[in-house]
Each structure stands twice: as C-alpha cells, then as structure tokens.
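quick one
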Amino acid sequence: METIIRKYDSEAPDASVMEEAGKILRAGGLVAFPTETVYGLGGDALNPQASEKIYAAKGRPSDNPLIVHIADLQALQVLTSRIPDRARVLADRFWPGPLTMIMPKSDVVPRQTTGGLDTVAIRMPSDPTAYELIRSSGVYIAAPSANTSGRPSPTLARHVAEDLSGRIDMIIDGGRCDIGLESTIVDLTGDIPVILRPGYITKEMLEEAVGRVDIDRAVTASRPDPNLRPKAPGMKYRHYAPRGSLTVVQGSREAVAAKINSLVKEKQARGKRCAVIASEENMRLYQAERIMDIGSRRHEESIAANLYDILREMDEEDIDFIYSESFTGEGLGFAIMNRLLKAAGHQIIQL
Ligand code: AMP
Ligand code: MG
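structure w/ adenosine monophosphate:
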C-alpha cells in the first residue's frame, strides 16, 4: 500500500486534507495524525476490523488496548455504560488536553478496541488538527501512538513515516508535537482514581481537582515484576527503547559527568560508538563523539519535547552505548523519568 502524506497547517486549514482523511477513516482505513502529546495512529474505534488493522500495522500485542479520541462530551454517553462523577470534574478541568480516563465501556465499543477489557480509555485532545479530524470525520478515533510497537513514540511526521510507511493509508503532517510525551492515564473505575501512566497532567494537578489519587504500583516499580499484573496492559511491555544500550546515571552533577566520561572512554577504546544525553546546562562537562542537548533543567517541558526524537536519532546514528543524565522525578520530571527508565530497561547507575 502506498501511504499518502499530506501537510496540514491548522492556522491555514486545507479542508481537502480532512475530507480525504475522513473518507479513509469511515471506510475502515488508518490515518496517522498529530496531537499535543505524540502522533496517533487512528482508525474507527467502533469498527473491529479497523482496530485489528491498527494492531497489525504497529506489530502491537492484541491485549494492549487503544485510546479512543473524542471531540465532544456527548461521546461519553455513547462510549461508556456509566460516567463516574470524577470523570465529569476532570473533563471539565483538563479536557481538551493530555489526560486519558478509563471508564466502564458500553456495548458499542468492540473488544478489539479495548484489548478484551470491559473498560475503555477515552481522551479529548486539544491539538486543533486532531480536534478537526475527529469532528469533521464524524468518527470516534481509536489511536495508539503511531510507532512500531517497542520503538520510541513519534513526535514528528517523519518518525511515523520511518515506522509505518507502506503499512497505513495516510499521514497528516502537522509539524512537531507540543508536549512530546504520551497522555497521563487515570483509571476512574474504582473508589480512588489511579494513575496508570504519568504524563503532563501530574498527580498534584489531579488531586487538586478530585482529592486523593494513587499511582499504580507497576508505575513506580524499579523493574518490571512478572507477578504484578499491571492495569494498563501496555506497562508490561518494553517501550520507547533505542536499539543501543541505554544507561541512566544518577548522582551529583560532577560525579555523574566523571562516571559517564570514564564509561565512554572505556567503550570507545573497544571501538564502540557512544553518546551522552545531557541537559543544556551540563553539555560542556562531557567528552564523547556525540553529546545530545536534551533541553534545559529550568524548562522540563523542553526535555519532554526532545526525549523521543533524541532516542530515535541514537538509532539513526547506530550508537552502541548511550549514557543519560537523570532528571528530578518531580512534576513533569516524574513522567520524563518514567519514560527514560523504561527506555533504559531500568539500567541505572546510582552514585
Ligand atoms: P498508547 O496509545 O500507545 O500510548 O497506548 C495506550 C495505553 O493506554 C496503553 O498503555 C494501554 O495499556 C492503556 N489503556 C488503554 N485502554 C485501557 C484500559 N481500558 N484500561 C487500562 N489501560 C488502558
Ligand atoms: Mg505507545
């Protein structure tokens, strides 16, 4: 199949792009599109064959459910069997935006879309291109990240094309995604809301709106525990990973730099290609053939936005060993560290 790639600028909208994409979605085809988090691989959430195509295109295990993207609150009446009170409060506060809520599903949502579960994950994106696609197509769009399963999520249309060209009908190129990390996922089916995946919307932000919120143990576990059955099935799979070996080094600024420099020296002496992922503030402390500026510690948004692009670049440059600084673990830093440690397969050196 040839993949159509069309540029779309939400400030100078070209309706023909949306018409073409809408036609494909209504016919059960697949369209990748930008959102404020990462690019999504979209299909009609109520069409089981479309969901099956999404799994096939990504090489995604079929028990890893998809997020359904909506453009208006009325969709909740159609997609859920019950709207928890807290979901209304959180929707009012954070939608449209980077928050996914798990609710009991209605009968119209096929199990192919929910990975066999009785619950459905729903999000209303704020990105104007995503919004316009959902609205104008008239389709509730099931969309996981538009990458090959296991690779870093795509934050540019080029990343989507690298992974899925020839396997999907269309890519809408809307430029770079603002946030660059996947949405926060919160499960609202129990008495206390539980964060299944951290993201831009933090625990503190959620608690301010609805009181106590817990974090699933599988999120905080230092390594995947085969005995823990994560509620977000996606959490049990290796994710976001570059092909080279990635290690996160944690400690004081000077100790981290000294350790990474000595590791790089040792690996280079054996003819290996090495790269360092450093914050803008610390770049000059390192000696390596590639030193990647991931952004400023004073603006963690910049670090979130660059992370996946940098991990992909490591593959393009055939880097064997990657050493990364560690980040705060507070606020957005918690989501950044969650993705970084997963990408590293939890290889961490604590100094
Ligand atoms: P992705 O869109 O690729 O970021 O993946 C979607 C994530 O949402 C996966 O980690 C899923 O496990 C999670 N998810 C989707 N639906 C549900 C659900 N009904 N219950 C729990 N987690 C879900
Ligand atoms: Mg994904």
